[in-house]
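Risk register update: the risk of archive-format incompatibility is retired. Evidence:
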Amino acid sequence: MSLNDTPRSDRLHIAIFGRRNAGKSSLLNAFTGRKAAIVSETAGTTTDPVYKSMEIHGLGPCVLIDTAGFDDNGPMGELRVQGTEEALKKTDVALVVIAADAGYEICLKEGLQPDLLLGDFDSMEPPANFAQVRRLPVEKDDTDTLAALKVGLERMCDTFYIYGGTGGKRLDHTLANLQSLLFLRRRGARGFLYDDDFVWTVLENEALTIPRTVEWGLFSAFCLGDQAEGVDEEGFQYPLRDALLTPDVPLGVSNHILESEARIAVRKGALAVGWELESLD
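Archived output:
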């Protein structure tokens, strides 16, 4: 059975809850890459729950659920809240949105209201009308992104999607965010770092199956640490079998996914792996 044929009842149900106009529909559209839900400045636009089946890297076949706000009121509002409560009963995973420092401005641009805003606020001042703010000291060991990941771990999150963590003028922060993926993996969680039409994650002493999302899709793998032993790459243009990857030779760069699914495995060591995604433009 293909991923597209997986019945809704067998899929992981991920729901988005919050107040009216918190950006729940915008978040659903951002995940799906299309206008699956209507977005409006008018509070209470979402009436019945919206169910969208899709596949999410690292999770497999899923159903994303957009819901009406828990604060909806009036006779119709009560019915909408009842629909939201019914969706809650079907939910396996709920989403938490954490904005790190100026990431808050990106959230606003995308129509999202984060559950928490934290940072040392060296790139912006925290908004006066936002209650859930955690101010960090400027002089600290953790980056704002790593601090946000630690909060997510405290809230029992086990899958992290990091946006706005690559590119720009700070290559050092991009490298730090790649290291943070290993931080998550060693604590039983998995992180996905999204770049323009690319996503990165980390493997350590394990295997990962990757679906081909674009024809001739790019794939790269880099050693994190002294060496990565027993590396297998199956379903690629340049397969590897029991290979040794080291940090001084970029042997794993610029491969291509040929099969509908490819497999990358490392017997001992850690790898940062990234693959091309379908463009949202």
